[in-house]
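Lab notes, practical 5.
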Amino acid sequence: QVQLVESGGGLVQVGGSLRLSCAASGRLDSVLTMGWFRQAPGQEREFVATINWRFGRASYANSARGRFTISRDNAKNTLDLQMDSLKPEDTAVYYCAATGAASTVPQHYNFWGQGTQVTVSS
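Output from the prediction step:
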């Protein structure tokens, strides 16, 4: 089992920045990929960014590329998402997730945090 706890959400104005963090614990030796996903009201959960837990190779959704940066600290077992130039359409609940697969598909992730709300006001 892997336990994930997110923090760092909140309310920010358009163009502002937020940094999300995820503390991971448990059987991290079984994790290949960790990622951030988001879900807005009435919409499906979608991929934002993922990272190879061992080697650090990152993947980004088109909506996040150039504005968001995913990073991990293997020594501290943390996963971060730096979000800059935020837009109203970034408003969603953001989830940290982990999987033993190499994937950006939410259904392939079997460990999830509780989520943290990000609201971007215009």
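Observations recorded by the TA: The CA atoms of residues 48 and 63 lie 8 Å apart. The radius of gyration is 13 Å.
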